[in-house]
């Protein structure tokens, strides 16, 4: 038990160090839950709530989602947010399921994730991709992993064309806000309109669900939903 606690403590310290490094490197102003809308290019795309909405997300399924709890949560943090978005927008959910599951324990998952990031890997997706052609607005959400979308989300982004649509990033993380999600989407799809994104702290999703849902609904109201 003592050994498990020690290992868990070491992992938390490593993660906090990674978050700190990422935050200082990016010098992003992420003191509020939503991102700034400045410097976004205006593309001729219909408003978010006109037409169909797709809510794409990845969320760790295997075990503990909250890094503060050494026990599994029944539903991942980002999956919970995706559900809230789908409920409020009437959108369709699509979960990105990796062909190869991640390990159950946090430490090994973080090692695998770090390797995938270093190698700029594109892990395979298990389930068929959605036909995105009929959607006007696509939300793309995930936990922040080492400041970035998990690489399996990059696999998804490489495989579908979201140009000409509204795209909305959302994230759960423990200190990195939306990570680099905005810039990933803008550079991947230069002819899409990247709308104001939103993040919630993973720990809050697990512990303060109703206030998190109010935050999410307020953000979506601001997008016109
Ligand atoms: C491999 C890995 C890397 C992570 N990297 C970061 C990070 O860079 N910044 C951060 O704030 N949180 C980081 N986290 C914490 C998760 O983003 C956070 O706990 C999230 O809410 C988990 O969401 P999920 O339950 O949907 O998988 C990381 C977690 C894992 C497993």
Automatic annotation (TrEMBL):
Ranges of compositional bias, category Low complexity: 28-42
InterPro entries: Flavodoxin/NO_synth (IPR008254), Flavoprotein-like_sf (IPR029039)
Residue span(s) of domain Flavodoxin-like: 76-203
Domain of life assignment: Bacteria
Segments of this protein annotated with the region Disordered: 28-48
Gene3D superfamilies reported for this sequence: 3.40.50.360
Entry-linked Pfam families: Flavodoxin_4
Entry's Gene Ontology molecular function annotations: FMN binding; oxidoreductase activity, acting on NAD(P)H
PANTHER family with a match to the protein in the record: EXPORTED PROTEIN-RELATED, FLAVODOXIN-LIKE DOMAIN-CONTAINING PROTEIN
UniProt-recorded name of the protein: Flavodoxin
Organism: Leuconostoc mesenteroides subsp. mesenteroides (strain ATCC 8293 / DSM 20343 / BCRC 11652 / CCM 1803 / JCM 6124 / NCDO 523 / NBRC 100496 / NCIMB 8023 / NCTC 12954 / NRRL B-1118 / 37Y)
């Amino acid at each position: 038990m003592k050994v498990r606690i020690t290992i868990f403590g070491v992992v938390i310290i490593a993660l906090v160090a990674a978050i700190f490094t990422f935050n200082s490197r990016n010098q992003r102003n992420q003191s509020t839950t939503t991102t700034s809308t400045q410097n976004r290019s205006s593309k001729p795309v219909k408003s978010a709530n006109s037409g169909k909405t797709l809510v794409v997300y990845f969320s760790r399924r295997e075990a503990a989602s909250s890094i503060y709890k050494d026990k599994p949560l029944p539903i991942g943090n980002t999956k919970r947010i995706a559900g809230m978005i789908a409920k409020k927008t009437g959108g369709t959910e699509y979960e990105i399921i990796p062909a190869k599951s991640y390990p159950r324990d946090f430490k090994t998952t973080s090692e695998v994730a770090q390797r995938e990031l270093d190698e700029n890997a594109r892990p395979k997706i298990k389930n068929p991709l959605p036909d995105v052609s009929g959607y006007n607005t696509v939300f793309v959400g995930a936990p922040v992993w080492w400041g970035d979308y998990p690489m399996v989300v990059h696999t998804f982004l490489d495989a579908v064309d979201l140009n000409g649509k509204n795209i909305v990033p959302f994230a759960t993380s423990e200190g990195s806000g939306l990570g680099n999600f905005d810039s990933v989407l803008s550079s991947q799809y230069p002819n899409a309109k990247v709308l104001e994104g939103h993040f919630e702290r993973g720990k809050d999703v697990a512990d303060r669900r109703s206030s998190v849902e109010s935050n999410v609904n307020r953000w979506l109201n601001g997008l016109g939903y």
